[in-house]
DNA sequence: CGGGTCTTTGATTAGGTTCAATAAGAGTGG
DNA sequence: CCACTCTTATTGAACCTAATCAAAGACCCG
């Protein structure tokens, strides 16, 4: 919780204002922020079939920028809009009766959030920017009326909400059935895949969230997360240096259920390192070249 | 898995046929099953503001009956309809790569399920009847076209889907943060509340699911569930006899976070039993005798 | 540089799983 | 109707995973 956090209602006007006037105090990030997106861009972002018939440039959706640590919406705040991530990283959290945070998701490019507000007309969760963010505002009222005109849009909405539900179900399943190691492994895999989709390296990336936030998301303590990452490093599945993660053996991460007993770990690590260093002693499995940061 | 299970597609025609002809082979349950519901009945069931303008009796939705153990839909099956529970109890499950079931929900009267199929046009979960059930079929195509004419209906759909999402979020939060005892306690409370809503007793009811299914739902083993129920019984919060549960102290269940040390249990149990029997010997301390939160 | 947050690592403990044995129902067929 | 089987539930004991408590190092930012 940084002291710079401000309720979203205040923020929004403040930031819109800054954007509209192309404030000169920008740091280079806000300047390249788009101000409006049309329907096609929006559908592309959401990875849903684009409404072909709709080329109208009249339907434009406004962007907003948030800085690291700022709150997009809080629990109990009146719901009026959904948000789509254009760039940046966020977390959504639930706060329990004792003020403990429970991380629900880490929205990033192409993700929709705020859906939980539809039912009660109030957001039931809180969204916080983990980095500087560029979001697209989707005023719910405007959206539904738009849906009356364009069928595809309505379907798109159902589809995205359904996708969210499936995601949550997968989460429940993971929390209910998998070991700590398997959870962390899958978390890394899904991050890696998301980064790949976004055009970043899937082999080397920085975590945008703390160990505490990861732990909360995975139903673990921060110590367990840290220890598990260290263990993965030890057996040569990944490299870890603070927030920087290097993926070495994604297949093992994908299928991992339980860690091998620690007695056999040193051998493992040595083997993996040889493979990673391309000094193969025997037939090398394909796709073991991890040190390529550049892509798309 | 009873051998009487049949894929839903076959079942549906089979059972409709039986219903339409009021088959004489019915056992008293199927005979009282309704065949059609109108829009108002449907909205009432879903606990959403009824579409007032729509009194048209032309929009009718068909009922289907399923018997205990029958499958309503399976994973991968083509999605075409949503289901609303008119009566009976079900479970929805995910099956992992090794065939292990993960229970996701226990739909009962007024609940909607099948939503997870919208996104990929295939159901991502499986729904099984835990008792004889009367369901209302909501063909998705028919529903969306209907939504074009009646705005309220569309909103209702968004609302219900949003509600489901919030429910899943609460589930994630519970699995991520609460102890085994707290999970079981909350499970009992929510069941009690649901039974009350349905007009049944909130104090005495039968579980429709096995310990294994409860455990899967709560992310616990069946032994832990059984032990926890026994412990609750021991300290006088509930009575347990196989599937029959009697709720004695719902407030304690609601606020329970951890069980008192077993050494002090016998005293507790004695006290609760006296209270339940209305023969209180002295003023009971107001909810601070062990680790539980102050009631909101 | 110093105070704060974040991370790593160790030692210990406790909550929950696993394995195992028994008992209680429910259903089936002779 | 009873024996037989299969599923479900209960309970105990040993084990183990992950939480808790604690301490020290790394990093960041003013």
Q: What would your notes on this structure say?
A:
- The structure is a homodimer of 296-residue chains.
- The first copy, chain A, is of the alpha+beta class and 296 residues long.
- Chain A has two domains: 7-29 and 178-295, Arc Repressor Mutant, subunit A (Orthogonal Bundle); 33-174, Jelly Rolls, CATH 2.60.120.10.
- In chain A, 40% of the residues lie in helices and 19% in strands.
- The first copy, chain A, has ten helices and twelve strands.
- Chain A has helices at 8-20, 39-46, 117-120, 140-149, 151-177, 180-197, 211-218, 222-234, 250-255, 265-276, and strands spanning 36-38, 60-66, 71-73, 81-87, 90-95, 101-105, 112-113, 126-129, 133-139, 204-206, 238-241, 244-247.
- A five-stranded antiparallel β-sheet of chain A has the order 1-2-9-4-7. Chain A has a four-stranded antiparallel β-sheet with strand order 3-8-5-6.
- In chain A, α4 crosses α5 and α7 (211-218) crosses α8.
- The two termini of chain A are 34 Å apart.
- Mean pLDDT of chain A is 81; it is low at 1-31 and 277-296.
- Chains A and B meet through α3, α4, α5 and α7 of A and α3, α4, α5 and α7 of B.
- Chain A binds a DNA duplex (30 and 30 nucleotides) through residues 179-180, 210-212, 220-224, 226-227, 229-230, 242-243.
């Amino acid at each position: 919780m940084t002291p710079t956090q401000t309720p979203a209602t205040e923020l929004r006007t403040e930031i819109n204002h800054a954007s509209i006037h192309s404030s000169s105090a920008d740091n280079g990030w806000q300047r390249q922020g788009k101000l409006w997106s049309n329907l096609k861009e929006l559908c592309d972002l959401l990875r849903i079939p684009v409404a072909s018939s709709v080329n109208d440039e009249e339907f434009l959706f406004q962007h907003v920028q948030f800085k690291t640590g700022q709150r997009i919406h809080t629990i109990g705040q009146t719901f009026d809009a959904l948000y789509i991530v254009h760039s940046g990283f966020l977390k959504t959290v639930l706060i329990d009766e004792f003020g403990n945070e429970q991380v629900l998701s880490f929205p990033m490019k192409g993700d929709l959030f705020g859906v939980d507000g539809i039912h009660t007309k109030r957001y039931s969760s809180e969204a916080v920017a983990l980095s500087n963010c560029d979001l697209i505002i989707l005023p719910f009222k405007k959206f539904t009326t738009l849906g009356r005109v364009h069928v595809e849009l309505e379907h798109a909405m159902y589809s995205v909400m359904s996708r969210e539900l499936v995601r949550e179900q997968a989460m429940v399943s993971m929390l209910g059935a998998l070991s700590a190691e398997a959870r962390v492994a899958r978390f890394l895999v899904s991050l890696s895949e998301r980064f790949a989709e976004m055009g970043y390296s899937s082999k080397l990336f920085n975590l945008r969230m703390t160990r505490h936030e990861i732990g909360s998301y995975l139903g673990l303590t921060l110590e367990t997360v840290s220890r598990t990452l260290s263990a993965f490093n030890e057996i040569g599945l990944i490299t870890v240096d603070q927030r920087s993660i290097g993926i070495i053996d994604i297949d093992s991460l994908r299928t991992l259920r339980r860690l091998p007993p620690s007695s056999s770990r040193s051998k493992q690590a040595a083997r993996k390192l040889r493979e990673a260093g391309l000094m193969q002693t025997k037939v090398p499995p394909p796709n073991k070249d991890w040190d390529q940061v550049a892509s798309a």
